[in-house]
Amino acid sequence: ITHFGRMPEQLQDLPEKLVTHSSAHHDLSVFAGQDVTVIGGGASAVDVAVFLSEWGATTSLVARSGKLKFAGAPSGKPRTN
Hints:
Elements: E1 35-39, H1 43-54, E2 58-62
Parallel strand pairs: 1-2
């Protein structure tokens, strides 16, 4: 997901020890025992929040929208676009 990595402008000047994009991490176990806030409303943000929790982090998910975005369940039909 590195090509989708975008850091909100409001967070860009914070030190990397406090704010990183999920694409910078390959081993979420390093967050065990830490409080981690995931900012995002898509499937990747939800996945990262769940994985962090599974590795022992206290995890919060913050999204600007009232709905989370997923591609949806597979219909079993091939895509036409």
